[in-house]
Amino acid sequence: MAGNLSLRELRKSANTSTYRTQGSFFASKRNHSTADSSFSYNPSLQHNESLANQSTIVHSSDITGANTGLAHDSGIVELTKNTMFRVSRLAATPAILQPQPEANQSATSIKNGSFDPINNQALLLSNRMAYIWSYNSPDKTPECLSFPVGENNYNDQSNPFGIFVSPAAGSTESGLVTVTSSGALNYWESTGGVLISEDMLQKRKNLDHQISLYNGEGIENLQNIEPAGIIATTSSGRYILVTLRDSSGKTHITSTTMRGNGPGFWNNIRGALAVSTTRKNVVAIKLGISTHRNHRQVLIVNRDAALTIWDCDRNTDPVLKSDLQLKSLMLNYIKDIYPQAERGFQTHDMELLHNGFLVFLTSFALNDSEECYILFSVDVTNENPHLVSTYRVQSYSKRSTAKSPTPKLLLPQPGDTLFLVFPSAVVLVDTIKKSVSENPSSLLDKKWEDIVTFRDDVQILTSGYENMVKVNEKVTVHAGIVVSTNNSGIIRFERFERANDLAMADYKVSEYDLAKTRVEQAIHFGGDEENPIVFDLRKELKIHPREIELALISVSKDILNSSSPYLPPHLPSITEYLELRCERLDRLAFYVNRNLSNGVSVQIRLQLLWHLEMAVAARSLWSLIDPYSIESVESPQSVLLTIIAQHIQDLKIPDTDPLRAWFLNHLDDFMPLLLDAQKYCASQSVTGPSNKVIWDTNRVLLTVLNESAYKTREAYSSDIYGISELGSCEQPPWTSSKDLMYALEDQYTLTCNAMTQISATNDDLYDELKYQMLDLVAVLYYTYEERMNWCRGQDPTGLEINSLSACLNTKGSGWLRSFVDVDERERALNIAEVYHVYSSMVEILDGHYTQIIQGRMKDADKDSSIFEIRNAFLGYFETFGYPFAVEVYYYFANKKQFNILLAKFPEFNQYLERFFEEGNLPKLAWVQDIHTGNNQAAGVKLTELTFVKDPPVNVSNKLIQLSIAKLALLSTSQDDLSLVDEIDRQLELSTVQKSLFDQFKGYMPERDDGSVDVFIEEISPEFKRRNMPYIEAGFKRALGKLATEVALNSDELIDILTLTNLKSKSTAVNFFEALRIVASSNENNKKKKFLQQLIWRRAFLCDDWNTILATKGKSDDKMTEITSQTILFKTILAGLSENLFDVYLLELPRFSSSLISEQDKPLIQEHFTDVTESEINGIYSDLVGENILLQASCDKVDLEGWTKGLVVMAKRMVGQEPTFNSYSNIRSQTSTSEDIEMSDI
Asked: Where are the domains of the chain?
């Protein structure tokens, strides 16, 4: 099918026979193919008939290379057409107008010419020859009469003129007059006379005449003013009336200077002065009214808008009726808006409107590159001429050069449209205009105007008008003009008549209408390289970009659904009609690329592209349907027919052939069609659809998406439409809707399930389903990627992108594994490469390596295969760089294959170093540092690992990591050992935690889930009675970490050490360890004081002091024994033995200072981390509760004094002699004189 080739490939193969059989739509004029076809020309058709009805497709087999229409029998080629006018190239093109080699520039030597619309004759004159032919002849190379003109001694500088004149009596053929610039006149009473031989011509001297000229004077203009004769104007400003017949009607040539001031010497003087001032540089001679058989009013204007009006009669001297200077009238009106107009202001031409007003075509330079053309309508019927209306030409502003032909103004009857003829363009403007406004800016008001521009190599040589002709009230010839051109022959412009309701009012075209009609002409007529018209939007039109965008979408939709008036309603072949629409949308793409690449939003460009994709997809789908009939719906291979039939029924299309109607008019209904096809497949039976239905549904989905839409997008998206991103489009691409993504995933699952039911060796359908499954995965990846690209510009939260990415990562690896399962490893890698699925690339290569090592690849050469895999890895490292390396490292880290991660790819060690520097796999980063000899970095990284909270650090691992870190740091020559000191502190904490774990191991339940409720009573029997819920919650969390060997921080350790009481020797040791933790910490003094206070308070709470200090009936030895067994005394004794108080300046216990106070509240949050404000208040309340318990336990004794006594006893036991000063110093570095009195000893 045609969809099997990408559009880019189709373009390359456009001229091949294979491509022709596939019916691709790119075999257009862009490929220089020659079309024998154009729209037919039929002058009898009314302009308001359907454009499609005005054209007849007669050669559908070559529709892709055709213009909008095809050649009529008359040979006329329609070049463009809209509802307002038509432009056609006539068949008859004499050799003088045909393209010539550069060495023979015949057409460029044409000087002047004329048209006879009555007899359909054209005249061209070069400096030596005249050419006459019938321009309406159906012959492509008509019979052309050529003959020399002028004197025998002519030279290359001569400039002959020629005009057709009325037939002689008894003849129907027009006469012909030629005049050279030197005044040599030849007259033939009929054009048939030209056939007379040169010898016979010499015998008819009365047909020749010499106009008397002054020395250096030359003829510049020649105009037929019959019945009065002919007017010639000269370079000196003289007007000469030439009569061809006398008063009796006999041939008699005379020439008389038109003075217009009556006879006599002084009148001659006044006429001569007028010649020297206002009558030079004549640009137009136009005919006014004719009052009798010999009379004609003549209007002559020169470049400076000096207008003279004459009454001419072939039997009397001409009379000057008016001599008007209109330049100041025109300039005064526009000087405010165009102050630069006076410099270079000039008149180019003039026409007489049907209401008797004159319209002048004028211009002046706006700037170095632009010319401003203005039409002035002037009423000269009164003594004081005045402006009626002004209008600035909107569509043309090209500067003319000195060698450029003078712009012409033509007004064919009935006089509703002015034709402005420029060297390479024709502008059409309505003549109806309301009265002039007092505001000069009104000349910028828009009315109906359009322009036809020719290629640079096509220049207009001569022009003439054709008046409208009606026969029995039916228009047989439209009002228009004909122009002769080099390289493109004779071209006719026809203006269609306006409806009656518009005939009496200004008709304004909206910017949207103008934009649409120009785009339509470009698309439907611009595909033929032989068409001389340039359809590009001109900068002068100044159409708002939004109007252009709306026009583009409208044109595209019209083509997609066959509603364009430029398309035929039907073609016998749907295939060829789809080809035609694809070709038109292809032209639209190139038109936008050439004209509007920066002026059309991405959203509009995407919609235009999607329309083309749908058309191409429809063409491909029809190739699946065409072999079947609608009656074959029950066929197992007719999913598409079934769904389309249902859609036709739902749309209620009233057509005898609804299937074809859908492909003609409903291609924008594509997405529901695909979704319903998949739903139909999934719902065929309870046990699942048949394998044939799955195969056929896959074929539909893949034909539309993979073989049509995606390939079209690849060919056009970037190169033609210049689309690089999707984010600015408000709606997602039609091929990546969520519903379609879900449908494709379901279809992939159905296909995989079907494959599992089929033997790979016994069923031919297996291979077809396998390749469809592979294509479905490719489509899924494309769809996900496209959807995510769109979301990047539409979803600032990133929620959908993250969801799609997670879904693709989860499902995608499984999709690619299915490739490996069916021995399509290379294709899986190709998809992974395209979409940068690096994790799957690593997994596939490593899986292949594992199979080879395990000997599961029987036919593989082990060594060469391993070599190829390693080269594949290296190639990916080289191609994809660091992002691929990251996936490699994580993959082998997850597999615990650290040796491969660290040492397998030394060629790209810079990626590994960067990987670790960015904080990835921190537990391995230090190994790389050791490997590279950077022990300092290794020590730092290992130390940092011990502070990681997520995941929690195992205390055993922490000990190992800290030990290695210490060794690494000590092996360097660094003088700063502060980090080593911190490591020592952390090692001490870890050692204490290990000791605690050993203490409690026998009390822990067998469960390892960290639950501690079951053994709190065992390790802290008094804890429950204290009723401290907030402290209990933190205590449980710390015990949970201890039970699971998660590293504890110093605050958590202090809580466990001081809140447990096993009634064993270890309890006193625990309080001592708590003090040692405080001593070695780097906390601030306030925090240290708070911790010491907490430790001593809880040490006090471990014993019942009212009972212990009840001295009645106890000996000294007994009191010494009892007090020495208290946790408080044992802790004091241990601290003194280890010099904690001397070396680390810790406080000795004091009952009053161990109580919590309001000022200690800010320190609670430092100790109890990760708690809320309300929890801080609760914890403070619990600590106050400890105060109450402590006070209750010693309310009958002087615990303050006894504590001091215990300190003295402990000092003596360690060999220290207590003194007041030493006790004071030991107790607190921050104590004041008010803290201690002499009675304290």
From this structure: 106-210, 658-827, 836-919, 922-999, 1007-1214
